């Protein structure tokens, strides 16, 4: 299987601590990087994780709270100093567009590349990006300001060729791509070997849903139904359920409820309140609802 | 002597690396903190150094390049989330004022304290701040945009009381402050003990000059004459003298030349180009000109 991973660069919430960076993740798929949220210190976090700036072409911002976007201007500025020429695409709520543009105009005169901002509708689930490898959909979330999650869906890959059959029928390498694309193979004596004898089924496409920040949304499970991996914010434990309600955040148990109802493969927890010195209390509460739950942490890399 | 220190939180230049943060320092004097420059990640760097946010009331920005000010908005935002009520004073070039104001308006609605911006004239050496402990003067620097260094001068302290004389003449504790302020002491029998018998001279006031970013300025030595500690940017070694000229930066040898001509106590080097994996080449070049030179590094604390 081709690598499809998420690098956690930050899993803290609004108040950065000595233990956690603010929100930032990098999705890696078929050699390309896609950033989700970009808190302060994102450029250094990327460097520390050994992730290549050159492979990053798209940044998806959930909302305009500082802990999700203060790292953008530093990143854009540094890319300019490094001589970048490739366009950088930023997706995010409309409100942020004007502010970012003003920052770029002020701090990054003579930028050698373009920053193209794509405002997304945070009230709808729709595809906002597509390339050869994947599509990205918005997920409408409910926070104190317009906020969207992002759902990365890998495009279907081709079936696997059966090497034993290639040998058996002495099929030349030049025909492999045709067979992967579904063609039968005709032997020199005219016998047709049907395609299904030559391949095994392709891997099922994987998907990653990023949901931060949001209060508990009963209808969210339907939107992220069956994703391979779900990241759902879990700012609080159940002892702070009222705080979660008040500030439009979720508890770990609520995140796990979404995961269970959506029948996802695994759940990643993050956006931890700085009040928890040990997030295992969050993990335990989540695992009661949905066993395949994991705490994220800086420098963790999860296979999707 | 009362502590008068500088905490180095970042000593890299425009391109942050895994080894260095961008420019940021905190001067500590008589229990208060004063920040100089505020690169991205400043709030986390302060936390990691164990420096109290509550003790910080004044931030001095040299110029509006991102590596000297991208951390400001994160710091201001976090102070708000932590419930700060005390006014925060920011000093810096006029150009930055409007941009910062717009960022604060956009990202920090309902801030529970005021951010007061004091534009400084970057073309003159003049006192821009004064409190009980120190004065701060601007130092006009020559960079690619308006840029000021800052000179912190400790106010004269009181003379030291001679404990042996207190005992000898049985002088009550209530009189110590009067004696420190210069009064003589009259014994019960009417004999006057002159003040100079009761005290030893006060410590000479210390001073710290921060000079970053600037090209080599022959006239700078006169402006920082005799300071206890000089921080002078040393972006390059002599092999990149032409780069230094072109980008209005200095070499380590040039920094040391200023230190030697100004007859300072010691020289701190910083704002290192990311091209040097080992800054000892800079240190050696500086020490040829001025022996009492030191490399700064994150988490270093220097007595001024």
Strand order of the largest sheet of chain A: 6-5-4-3-2-1-18
User: How widely separated are the two ends of chain A?
Assistant: 11 Å
* Assembly form of the protein: homodimer
- CATH class of the largest domain in chain A reads Alpha Beta
Shape of chain A: globular
The CATH topology of the largest domain in chain A corresponds to Metallo-beta-lactamase, Chain A
Corresponding CATH superfamily of the largest domain in chain A: Ribonuclease Z/Hydroxyacylglutathione hydrolase-like
Tell me the major beta sheet of chain A: 7 strands, mixed
What is the H/E string of chain A? EEEHEHHEHEEEEEHHEEEEHEHHEHEE
Strand content of chain A: 25-35%
Estimate the mean pLDDT confidence of chain A: 96
Q: Specify which chain pair forms the largest interface.
A: A-B, 29 and 29 residues
From the alpha carbons, calculate the radius of gyration of chain A and give it in angstroms. 22 Å
| Domain module tally of chain A | 2
Number of separate helices of chain A: 10
Specify the structural class of chain A: alpha/beta
Low-pLDDT runs of 5+ residues of chain A are: none
Count of extended strands of chain A: 18
Q: What's the CATH architecture of the largest domain in chain A?
A: 4-Layer Sandwich
């Amino acid at each position: 299987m081709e690598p499809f991973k998420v690098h956690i660069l930050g899993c803290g919430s609004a108040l950065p601590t000595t233990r956690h960076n603010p929100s930032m993740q990098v999705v890696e798929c078929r050699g390309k990087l896609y950033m989700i949220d970009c808190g302060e210190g994102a450029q250094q976090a990327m460097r520390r994780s050994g992730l290549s700036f050159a492979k990053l072409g798209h940044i998806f911002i959930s909302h305009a709270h500082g802990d999700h976007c203060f790292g953008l201007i530093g990143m854009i500025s540094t890319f300019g100093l490094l001589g970048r020429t490739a366009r950088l695409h930023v997706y995010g709520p409309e409100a942020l567009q004007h502010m970012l543009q003003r920052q770029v105009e002020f701090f990054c005169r003579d930028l050698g590349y373009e920053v193209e901002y794509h405002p997304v509708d945070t009230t709808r689930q729709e595809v906002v990006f597509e390339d050869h490898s994947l599509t990205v959909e918005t997920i409408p979330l409910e926070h104190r300001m317009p906020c969207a999650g992002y759902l990365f869906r890998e495009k279907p890959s081709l079936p696997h060729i059966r090497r034993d059959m290639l040998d058996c029928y002495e099929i030349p390498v030049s025909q492999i791509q045709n067979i992967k694309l579904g063609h039968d193979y005709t032997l020199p004596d005219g016998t047709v070997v049907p395609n299904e004898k030559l391949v095994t089924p392709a891997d099922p496409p994987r998907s990653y849903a990023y949901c931060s920040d949001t209060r508990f949304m009963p209808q969210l499970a339907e939107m992220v139904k069956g994703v391979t991996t779900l990241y759902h914010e879990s700012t609080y434990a159940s002892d702070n359920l009222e705080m979660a309600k008040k500030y439009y955040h979720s508890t770990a148990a609520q995140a796990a409820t979404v995961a269970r109802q959506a029948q996802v493969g695994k759940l990643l927890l993050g956006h931890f309140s700085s009040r928890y010195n040990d997030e295992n209390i969050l993990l335990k509460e989540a695992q009661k609802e949905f066993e395949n739950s994991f705490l994220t942490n800086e420098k963790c890399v999860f296979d999707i």
